[in-house]
Design goal:
Elements: H1 30-35, E1 39-45, E2 50-55, E3 60-65, E4 70-75, E5 81-86, E6 96-101, E7 107-111, E8 114-120, E9 123-128, E10 133-137, E11 143-147, E12 157-160, E13 166-171, H2 174-177, E14 181-187, E15 193-195, E16 203-204, E17 207-210, E18 216-220, E19 223-224, E20 230-231, E21 234-238, E22 244-245, H3 253-257, E23 265-272, E24 275-281, E25 295-300, E26 303-309, E27 311-316, E28 322-326, E29 345-350, E30 356-363, E31 365-368, H4 370-374, H5 402-417, H6 420-426, H7 432-437, H8 441-451, E32 456-458, E33 461-464, E34 472-474, H9 484-493, E35 508-510, E36 518-522, E37 528-532
Antiparallel strand pairs: 1-2, 1-31, 2-3, 4-5, 5-6, 6-7, 8-9, 9-10, 10-11, 12-13, 13-14, 14-15, 14-16, 17-18, 18-21, 19-20, 21-22, 23-24, 24-25, 25-26, 27-28, 28-29, 29-30, 32-33, 33-36, 34-35, 36-37
Helix pairs in contact: 5-6, 5-8
Length: about 525
């Protein structure tokens, strides 16, 4: 759980320090505190400045108050402690390394010019910002430093914890391997550095998580062609094994509808038993981000199993428990000072009885304990969403007039059946080009494709696709930001980017070509008429 954070540069030793216990009591009082079970889940509410814990029945309580948003939150292997580092963009007095005992509520902290965080056994481990040493924070607040046998670069960071060693991502020189490429190495308690991928084998790296058994690591890549051009995937490797797995991203219908080929990020990544849950989504600061554009899967042995859409992250625990971070229909506008935060949403929890509860709002991330993740069963297979025969709503979510939709269904049925006589009858008011097209198999296939899209409203009718009547831009918070329906239609009809038409938008602008348009109108007496191609 966490986000890519820029690292502090400079050689600074870890300074030992600790704070008094913070308020970890619940608002329900001592009786509720006694009734709750051991935590199985932690989640972050950055605007509320808190990390919240939840037990197996979904009962929640504040684990700790926060002075700054956490950059990463990690569980100890036994689930007794949490560790994190303050997000650099939100820590005005310098970064702090934190360790929370979830049973006592006692928090240990120390100033830390460091990068990344993970548990090595029962100690919190991070890397000094000069890349020279591992820094450890124990349960009693004691700190120690282990010099690395091989000094690493200034931008190296702990990528994930492990049973016997931690993974470190070490940035490679751009002039040698290109932009944003790392090598992954392991380091044990003594500071001995050992590669576990082929020597200096480059990999893009955004965020990593260690497996519950401490033997494997999964990480999200984000190969970058610029600020708004990142392509992410998930990779896996095993400690002691110099190979790695790079599953190809899924290519099913729901992924195609999300239009995430050229720009895509891994927004959620978690272990679930022997496999992983992975969510792909857009870059929310650069692209339109309707819930349908976030697509979640279960990945095991190179195979993808579709889980659902509308979640920025999903995870599973023991006994059928699960959690999912829901993408809001309309994300709230951020204050300028909060622009560093990831997408926030409601966290929905499913208990062992299958009952769902919203545990909190304004949640940025969550993580199950290693024991919960280890016992998670593979999620049930979910069927791909099915489309209506003809869309009931326009590309902007408005209802399609009943009489026009009925005509569209009749045209589509006739085209699918190859009923040329019926099509010619329905197309009596069409232009000559359209009348000629319905006589050919290719023309009838094009009719079916067009009528599978979402129409747009015109002055006295509808046009398929809606993007024939108006454009959209794949850029957030604009007056013509693409809707989920429009994104689906762009993918369905392979609508190209419009080039050089308008400088008002920085994102990709889409508009249907003139050859691929179909218009229905309301005639006298409210009769629905097919009038052929749409010519605005």
């Amino acid at each position: 759980m966490g986000r890519f954070a820029s690292l502090l540069v400079g050689a600074t030793l870890l300074v030992a320090a600790c704070t008094a216990p913070r308020d970890g009591a619940t608002a329900e009082g001592d009786e509720a505190s006694a009734a709750r079970g051991a935590p199985v889940l932690a989640f972050v509410r950055p605007l509320a400045r808190e990390i919240v814990l939840a037990d197996a029945d979904g009962r929640t309580w504040r684990g700790v108050r926060l002075r700054a948003a956490p950059d990463h939150v990690r569980w100890s292997p036994d689930g007794s402690a949490l560790a994190w580092i303050d997000d650099e963009s939100d820590s005005h007095g310098g970064r702090i390394l934190h360790r929370l005992d979830v049973t006592t509520g006692r928090e240990r902290t120390t100033p830390c010019a460091c990068g990344g965080v993970g548990f090595l056994g029962d100690e919190v481990a991070t890397l000094s910002s000069d890349g020279d040493a591992l820094l450890f924070l124990a349960a009693d607040g004691q700190t120690r430093r282990a010099a690395l046998s091989e000094p690493l670069g200034d931008y190296a960071r702990v990528a994930a914890g492990g049973r016997d060693q931690v993974t470190i991502a070490d940035l490679l020189p751009e002039r040698e391997v290109g932009r944003g490429q790392y090598r992954l190495v392991g380091a044990d308690r003594s500071g001995t550095v050992r590669p576990f991928l082929p020597a200096r084998a480059p990999t893009s790296f955004a965020d990593g998580i260690g497996s519950p058994d401490g033997r494997r690591i999964a990480w999200a890549s984000a190969d970058s062609g610029g600020a708004c051009w990142n392509v992410g995937n998930v990779l896996l490797a095993t400690y002691g094994d110099k190979g790695r797995q790079t599953p190809e991203r899924p290519v099913d219908a729901v992924m195609g509808h999300a239009l995430l080929e050229e720009r895509v990020l891994v927004t959620g990544l978690a272990w679930a038993g022997e496999g992983l849950t992975v969510t792909f989504g857009p870059m929310t600061g650069c692209q339109a981000a309707p819930p349908e554009r976030f697509v979640s899967y279960y990945q095991h042995d190179g195979a993808w199993r579709f889980i659902g859409t509308g979640m920025s992250a999903v995870g599973y625990g023991a006994g059928g428990r699960g959690a999912r971070l829901l993408v809001p229909e309309r994300p709230e506008r951020r204050e300028e000072d909060d622009s560093y935060l990831p997408l926030l949403g409601d966290l929905e929890f499913s208990d062992s009885r299958g009952e769902r509860h919203v545990l909190g709002s304004g949640v940025s991330a969550f993580v199950f304990t290693p024991a919960e993740s280890a016992k998670a069963a593979p999620p049930a297979r979910v069927a791909q969403p099915k489309d209506d025969r003809v869309a009931r709503t326009t590309d902007r979510g408005e209802p399609v007039p009943t009489h026009l939709r009925a005509l569209a269904e009749g045209i589509k049925d006739a085209a699918e059946d190859g009923d040329v006589a019926r099509l010619r009858s329905l197309c009596d008011h069409c232009d000559g080009e359209t009348k000629d097209a319905v006589r050919t198999a290719e023309g009838r296939r094009e009719l079916v494709r067009l009528l599978s899209s979402h129409p747009g409203r015109t002055e006295n009718g509808i046009v398929f696709p809606g993007l024939a009547a108006h454009r959209c831009v794949d850029e957030p918070e604009q007056d013509i930001t693409c809707t989920a329906e429009q994104l689906r239609d762009i993918a369905l009809l392979d609508i190209p980017v419009v080039g050089g038409i308008d400088d008002a938008y920085e994102g990709q602008v889409y508009e249907a070509e003139s050859d691929h348009r179909l218009q229905l109108r309301s005639g006298s007496g409210g009769k629905a008429l097919w009038v052929g191609r749409y010519l605005p």
